[in-house]
Each structure stands twice: as structure tokens, then as C-alpha cells.
Amino acid sequence: MTDPLLWLLIAIQMVFGVADTLFHHELTERLAWRISQRREIKLHGIRNFFYSIIFLMIGWTTPTGVIAAMLIIALTVEIFITLWDFVEEDRSRRLPPSERVLHTLMALNYGAILALMLPVLWGWAGDPTALTPAYYGIYSWLCIVACIGTALFGLRDLTAADRLARITPPAANRLAMGLGDRQRVLVTGGTGFVGTRLVEALIAGGHEVTVLTRRPKLALDILPAPLRLITALDQIASDEKIDAIVHLAGESISNGLWTAHKKNRVIDSRVDLTNDLIALAARLDRKPDCFIAASAIGWYGIRDAEPLMETHAPETASFSHQSCEAVERAARRMEIQGVRTVRLRIGLVLGVEGGLLARMLTPFEFGLGGPFGNGKQMMSWITRDDLVRLIVHIMKTPALYGAVNAAAPGAVTNRIFTKNLAAALHRPAIFSVPAAPLRLLLGRFADELLLGGQNVKPDKAQAAGFEFAEPTLERALRRLVGAREQQRKRPWRIYGHTVHHAGST
Q1: Looking at residue 486, what is its pLDDT?
Q2: Residue 97, SS3 per DSSP
Q3: 381: phi > 0 → left, psi -120 to 50 → alpha, else beta; which?
Q4: Based on the number of CB atoms within 10 Å of its own CB, is 275 exposed (0-12), middle (13-18) or buried (19 or more)?
């Protein structure tokens, strides 16, 4: 295979494949951690297995006879796997436009490759069977790199498919148990990481949910029915009954550098909508029973390991505190309307579908994870399902009002967190990230969100009878990532006597 055009097309296909895998499959879509994509991931693993063989053979050999015929079959099977993959993608998820365009370009390019390669292989198939070594310079080395890469990702995808079968989140209706009669709930931020699970739980529990969203098409795609979608609060009539408002919407504080414009968007997006919700409550004939506004544990500022309860004063110099305080100050105005108001100070929300943990999974899965800085900063966390359960608990508990910490009782240091995550994934965690380059690149963002922390305690929630389903980090992470259950070693029996393994009981 000495045609320069053929090798150019093969090199282009390699670039397309790397871009699709890294940008779409890993960074944006995160397919290896989406339970709904288990079948797609398995197809990717099988296809990568075929690709690894194809790259090795065309880059370093001249196959003839039966071997050339087998290579033709492998190239043909790859077409059928890809078509099956297209069907599975359309069935199970909404592809971003960039992925659709890239898939189209890859299909066209692959067709051109086959048009040039198949006649050569067909001619070789008529020769005596042999596998003669060949060398095509830089193209041979590109093929060996592609062979190794596709083999590694193929093995990873098949492993991920097996892992996804073990990730079994609780049934959504169990998260909304005990809420009582059919509730009418208005949710903002219903298409977000926490909001989607909350809406799912409320609907599964038989409650009536209205979601305020700027993206109704996305909401229809990802949220269950029956569901009411509105794009503005004036679509709610004054005589409508709303039992609870859960306000989760707002610009993410951890998505992008903290420019002056970014800081203003973070605060304004939360405060402006909070004020709009207060205006809604003011014109309703019947006031909601409760208003739950999402704040964050960043309200306490950068702290050491000191346990922080809802009564503790904050460190006020940080932007994290300033943004949270702006939201809480606006939310307190809802109390003037006679509505029980809860300012929910949320910790690091754990789930493979989004949030901090989702960003950490890929580097940790490839053995590249480790602590930030010295790893001594405290991380107060809560699983997404426990957060949804806590929101439901607040809705049904009139005694809960004011600031409420939403964090599990088992806060840990960053070093312990990374150790537990690596153990759950059966990977090392040796690549710590020094503090100096983080501060150089990210400035105050690094100090507050990566190198600083808070040791927050859920005193009010627990005093009001809330019980965490996942109170300890090790158990929570193992369940979330689908870690294999650790099997207890069985004692050996030798000539009728029981002999225990070292360290067993």
C-alpha cells in the first residue's frame, strides 16, 4: 500500500477518531459514565478491537491470500458495527451538532479509504496466503500508535460497560417518600445536575411539577412526563396553587475564570430570579408553604478544619461568601411574604452525572489523579440523591427554616477524598497538583475552590430527623462508581482442618 492519497486519508481518519473520542466521548458527553449509554460503549469497545487489528496489519504487513480476505471481512464488519452504533446513538441520546458533523465526515472519509484499499486487498487475496512484514516509514509508526490507542480505549470501553451494569441508583420514587398528598412544586434549574434528579423524584412520587426553563427543548428531552414547562413566571396565574418553590437556577461559580463579568453574572443570575420569585409569591392568592433557595457552603468562606454549624459567622473576604450572601440576603425577603424560607448551603454534590466528581473521574480512571496542593483542605460533600432527599425532607418539615447545611457528616481532607476515589476505581493517586501553578493560572478561583475548604456539619438537618443514606465517603464513592464488591477470602481446608488466610478473621 504505497498510495500517498490512501495514507493521507488514513491519517485524517486517525485525527477524526482522536477528536471524536477525546472531545465528544470523554470531555463533553462522558459516555463511559452514563448508564443509558452502556450498549453504545460496548459497541465502541468492540469496534476499537477491530480497528487495532486493522491498523497493525496495514501499517506493518502485506497480507495475502486468506489473511487478506480476513482483513476485507474485518473492514466490512466495522461498517456494520458503525451503523449499529449510529442507531444506538439516535435511540439513546441527543447528539450535539459537532458530533453529527464529525461522524458524517468520518463516514465519508472511511468510504474513500475503502474505495482505494479494497481493490488492493482483493488482488492480494488471490495470492498464496502469507503475512509478509512491511514498512511504510512514518505511516507505519502512526499505525502502531493508533493500534495501541484503539486497543487501550477498547479495553477501557468494555470495562466501562461492565462497570455501568453495576451502577444501580435508587428508584426515583424512593427519594420523595413521605411527602404526603399530591404536592404542586415549582422548580427552577430543573435541567441541571441536581434539578433533573429532583424533578424525576417528584414526578415518580406522584407530585405535580412545573419547571421554569430557558431551554424547553432540552427539558423535554431529559425530563420525564407528565411535566409542565414554562419560560416565564408570568405564565403562572395568580389563582394557581403552588405548595413549594425550589430555586436551583443560576450561573455556575466553578465554570470559567472569575473575571469581573463572570462574577457579575454569577450574582445577578441568582439574585434577579430570586427577586422574580418573591414577586410571584406576592401576587399569588395563596402563598407557597415553603421556599428553598440554593446557596453553598462557600458562604462560610475559606476555613481550616474547624467544624462549622449554621450558627457560625463567615469569613467575608472571599468571593464565594459574597456571592452566597447576595443570594441569601435576597432569599430572606421571601419571609416578608409569610413564606417559610430555607437557605440551603450545599456542599460538593457527588454523582457521576455531573458536578465535581464527574470532572475528576476521567483523570483518575487513567491513573492520573491526586490531591490539590498539600491535600489538607477540607471537603464537605453530599451525594446527589441525599441532597434530593434532604430537599424533600425540608418540604415536609415545617420546623426547618433559615440556613440549613446540606453536607454529609463525614467531611474529609482532599488527600483522603482522592485516596478513596482512587481505591474505588482501583487506580493509584500519585500525581498531586502543586498549589503554585494553580494559583498562577486560576488566581483566587484556585484558592477558594481547589485549595481552600470548609468542614461543614449538618446539625439542623439531623436535629430535624433527617438521616443520610450515604453518610461515609468510602461507601458513597464505591456505590457511585460501581466498584466491585470486595469478596471475603474463604478459609482453606487441609485434611479436614480450617486454615485462615493471613489477616482474616
Answers
A1: 58
A2: helix
A3: beta
A4: middle
**Sequence-ordered list of residues with C-beta below 8 angstroms from that of 158, at least 6 positions apart, any chain:** 41, 42, 45, 46
Assessment of whether the complete model's pTM goes beyond 0.70: yes
Question: Residue 134: which of 67, 50, 49, 47 has the closest Cα?
Answer: 67
Q: Give burial (CB, 10 Å; 0-12/13-18/19+) of 207.
A: buried
Which three three-digit cell numbers place residue 179? Answer: 411527602
**What pLDDT score does 259 carry?**
86
Report helix, strand or coil for 303: strand
pLDDT in tens, 122-139: 999 999 999 999 999 999
Beta strands in 177-276 (DSSP E): 184-188, 208-212, 228-230, 244-247
In angstroms, the CA 365 to CA 172 distance is 28
Q: How far apart are CA 400 and CA 394, in angstroms?
A: 6
- HEC assignment per residue over 268-301: HHHHHHHHHHHHHHHHCCCCCCEEEEEEEHHHHC
Instruction: State the pLDDT at residue 179.
Output: 87
The residue among 124, 122, 148 whose CA lies nearest residue 134 is 124
Q: How far apart are CA 142 and CA 152, in angstroms?
A: 15
Residue 63 in grid coordinates: 497480507
Q: Across 48-114, where does the E strand assignment appear?
A: 61-64
**N-to-C CA span, the chain:** 63
pLDDT at 126: 94
- Domain parsing of the chain, residue ranges: 4-164, 176-480
C-alpha cell at 492: 482453606
Positions of the chain with pLDDT under 70: 485-505
Return the number of other C-beta atoms located less than 10 Å from residue 184's C-beta: 16
**Locus of grid cell 410571584:** 280
Out of 3.40.50.10240, 3.90.550.10, 3.40.50.720, 3.40.50.300, which CATH number does the structure's domain 176-480 have?
3.40.50.720
